[in-house]
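FIELD: query
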Amino acid sequence: MAVANCTKCGRMFQPIAGLKVCGRCRTSEDDLYKVVREYIYDNPGATIEEVAEATDVDEKKILKFLRDGRLETTGDSMLIDCEKCGEPIASGKMCDRCTNEMAKGLREVARSIEKEIKPQTEKEKKIIGKGMHTQLKK
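FIELD: result
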C-alpha cells in the first residue's frame, strides 16, 4: 500500500491512478471548477481575467482547467497557446497539427521497434504472440 503526501496541503493519503493531491483537495478543486464552468456558461465570451475576478478563482487555476481539457473556449476571449508551436487553441496542451505530428512520430518509433523484435526463425514465430513468455536470447 503506497502512501504519498498531498502536493497542496501536505496531508498523507493513498494515491489513486497517480494523482498527487488528496481527496479533500481534489474535491475543493472540483468545486472551483464547477463555479468557473457555471460562470462561463452564464457569461459566454468572458475573458480569463473577468472569470477570475467574478469567481474569485485564480487565473492560473482557470488556465489549468483549460490545459487539462476540462474547459473549452468557443470564442477568441480565452484562447491559450499550444505548448509546442504557440498557435492559439481552445483547450488542451497542443494544437491538432502538433498532436498529429507527435502521433506520427510515435507510430514511426513503434514501427521501428516492431521491426527490431520481429521473429527471425520458425521457432520464434511460433512462440511470439502466444501467451506469456520470456524474451528469446540472441
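FIELD: remark
The longest strand covers residues 4-5.
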